[in-house]
Amino acid sequence: MTTPDDHTLLRRAIALAAEAIESGNPPFGSLLAAPDGTVLAEDRNTTLTDRDITAHPELKLARWAARELDAPTAAATTMYTSCEPCSRCAAAVQQAGLRRVVFALSGEQLLTLRPGNGRPPVPQEGPALLEEVRAAMEPYYA
Questions:
Q1: Best CA proximity match to 74, nearest among 82, 83, 65
Q2: Whose CB has fewer CB within 10 Å in the chain, the N or C terminal residue?
Q3: Hey, which residues are catalytic here?
Q4: DSSP state at residue 107
Q5: C-alpha to C-alpha distance for 30 and 64, rounded to whole angstroms
């Protein structure tokens, strides 16, 4: 359940999304906040101006958090974002060890505004060579 304080921080994420549009990028903005609501970092989508398909604000902030925050601080941090993180960004948020994500627009709701991305799905095949890849990876996870 979101609180009035969450809504205040979400409004800032939405303002960052508007700033992204003003700079020629898709409308996504995010910020990281400490438990007391202090904004630790914020960013906006720069996929077009940076010519980088991974320049989502959620991914950039997850990378920042993993690099700049110690584990206890990250575990107390909330990401506020204009739209539900895509699967790539959600995985990065999880790896960064953030406490929670609060978003304004769901991915499903986004699709009602912008159906698809105009590109066909990329076929994926696998798993294959299970024993070989397992032998290569097991030492790391042992």
A1: 65
A2: N
A3: 58
A4: H
A5: 12
pLDDT in tens, 30-86: 999 999 999 999 999 999 999 999 999 999 999 999 999 999 999 999 999 999 999
Cβ proximity of 113 and 26 under 8 Å: no
Integer Cα distance of 29 and 11 in angstroms: 10
* Two tokens, residue 142: 């042992």
Alpha carbons 2 and 97: distance in angstroms, whole number: 20
Share of the chain above pLDDT 90, in %: 90
- The two tokens of residue 32 are 């990281």
The residues pairing with 102 across neighbouring beta strands, listed in sequence order, are 80
Q: What is the DSSP string of 55-66?
A: --HHHHHHHHHH
User: Residue 75 and residue 78: Cα distance in Å, rounded?
Assistant: 8
How far apart are alpha carbons 58 and 36 in whole angstroms? 20
DSSP, res 23: T
Query: What is the rounded CA–CA span in Å between residue 76 and residue 120?
Result: 39
Measured from the Cβ of residue 50, the count of other Cβ atoms closer than 10 Å reads 12
Distance separating alpha carbons of residues 129 and 133, to the nearest angstrom: 6
Peptide bond into 26 cis (omega under 30): no
